């Protein structure tokens, strides 16, 4: 069955960095675009970034442009989200999405 397992979340100070990973299984990873979303407490889930199947195309929400980088390793069936210059408003559960499926999420908390 399809599985998407996120990891790498945690507590970080403002201005810090984290790298999230999403390990995929159960589908042909290299043929699907992948996306990251986030959901802060009490808010709707929002799209953060996406990457094409071959990694030739990436796109970002305006609020993370220049700070976050999405990448993937098709040999490892894994998509990444490098998050730099983190702000308190980046605090949220981060989810990866691919092939119509969602992971369980990983919590990112940005606080001093």
Key words describing this protein structure:
112 residues; mainly beta; 7-stranded mixed beta sheet; 4-stranded antiparallel beta sheet; 51% strand; globular
Report what the structure shows.
The chain is an all-beta fold and 112 residues long. The protein contains no helices and eleven strands. The chain is globular, with a radius of gyration of 13 Å. It starts with a strand and ends with a strand.
Cα-atom Rg, whole angstroms?
Answer: 13 Å
> Strand pairing plus helix content: what structural class?
mainly beta
Provide the low-confidence segments as ranges. Answer: none
- How would the global form be characterised? globular
Task: Outline the fold blueprint.
Blueprint: E1 3-7, E2 10-12, E3 18-25, E4 34-39, E5 46-51, E6 58-60, E7 68-73, E8 78-83, E9 92-98, E10 101-102, E11 106-110
Parallel strand pairs: 2-11
Antiparallel strand pairs: 1-3, 3-8, 4-5, 4-9, 5-6, 7-8, 9-10, 9-11
Quick summary:
The chain has 112 residues and is an all-beta fold. It has strands at residues 3-7, 10-12, 18-25, 34-39, 46-51, 58-60, 68-73, 78-83, 92-98, 101-102, 106-110. It is built from no helices and 11 strands.
